Amino acid sequence: MTGHIRGCIRGCGRCWPRLFLFLGFTLFAYGQEAASPPPANSDENDVTKPKRIFALLPNYRTTLASQPFSPLSAREKLKLAGRDSFDYPLYFISGAWAAMYQKQNRNPSFGQGAAGYGKRYLAAWSDQTVANVLSEGVFPAAFHQDPRYFRLGRGGGATWKRLRYSLTRVIVTRNDSGRPGFNYSEWAGVGVAASNLYYPADTRDASSNLEKLGMQIGGDALYNFLREFWPDWQAKLSRRK
User: Fold this and answer.
1) Phi, psi for residue 67 in degrees, rounded to 5
2) I want to staple 7 with a disulfide (CB 3.0 to 4.6 A). Which of 115, 162, 175, 241 is the partner?
3) How far is it, in rounded angstroms, from Cα 188 to Cα 233?
4) What CA–CA distance (Å, rounded) separates 16 from 19?
């Protein structure tokens, strides 16, 4: 068993420097901000919004669009990225992705057995964590964009309007000026994570990269849909009890 673990670590050795650079930067910023009060229109001041979706998925980056807008500092953006990146459900989600990839024998050079699963787990966890750190923290700070989801809520219009709004936030976001703009942070962050830079050379190809990019963007759009409508569904379930 020890040999399997060592093989896993050696097989993914090339990814560690880049990965720890990103994660270390985020952890530093997260620690610096841990004792700071939340921003004025952050999710922590929105008492009507659940902190988790399905009592599991983190919902830290949601705030109400009706609240007065004030931009986040670079450290506040990195703090939000850190909370998403190191929340406990991510480790279980990474395990599920790794199990699926193991069954499909994706990235065959990873092999099978415990060593193969360990490599796929580390890769799946890295994909999600690097995407979160970059698209929610590093690139929003660099591009002066806001990583939060601004929920319309029931007062935001018809259901169809809210649905369209939620799904298009992966394309349109708010800049620090408060004005809408193309979501460079999302696409740049997810694009880097989908580029397979820390995968073995024989598993990197354009089709795999595009598939990962599409899955990540689609998953983020679905997440925004849940952020928009989950509080409504939760309220209905509460009234039925």
Assistant:
1) -75, 150
2) 115
3) 32
4) 5
